[in-house]
Amino acid sequence: MGQDGARSALRRGGIELEGIGKAYGAAWAVRRVDLVLGPGESLALFGPNGAGKTTLLKILATLVTPTRGSGRVAGFDLRTEQEGIRENLALLAHGTHLYEDLTVRENLEFAAAMRRRAAPLEALLTRVGLAEAAGERVRALSSGMKRRLALAKVMLAEPAILLLDEPFTNLDQAAVVLLEGYVAEVLTRGGTVIMATHDLARGYAACRRAAVLVNGRLIHEAPARVGGLEDLREAYVAATREGAG
After folding, report:
1. Hey, which CATH number is domain 3-88+159-244, 3.50.50.60, 3.20.20.70, 3.90.640.10, 3.40.50.300?
2. What is the pLDDT of residues 182-207, one digit of tens each?
């Protein structure tokens, strides 16, 4: 595949990081991370609180500028082509980032306008189980319903790169199934997914690769495989113990 073909393929999904680091003063939140994920690949990212998982996702989403290193996301340079990345990426953050005084439907209408998309909002509302709540203001919703709406905004974007930060928080079982199905859908169409989560079992089941981040360093990475969860759990516990030592 030539350079143009490789770039085109990465725009359907793909992440390449080389030596990525982020410092806040003298403290390094992320330290020299190397990572390659191709179209259709997914990574479950595990690690204790403060390991740097959210910072790494924010770097990929162009919300935080790396202190060192280089990378490409969906075929675009992480430092110089940020607009291209944003057009091809969606982040389901730990917070919902919704407009509390707008209704459910108005939040989606605004998101569609910002993305310049003519989206079938009624079908989307039905899919996430919010059709009957479409006229309610977001501030009146439960935490779980807000998470469903945040997921609907991600679905509306149809991203090539999907980043998930603790995505299972406040989701009931039906919403978990919805989220897992959507992750599979993104991968099937050639997208790339990174899921940062403390839920080892669900994260491992949802993704094709797994990694452990401790003190800003990727210290374990391996394909997800049948029977491999216990090996991951042992690596996670050992790495966390060593990182705290």
Report:
1. 3.40.50.300
2. 999 999 999 999 999 999 999 999 99
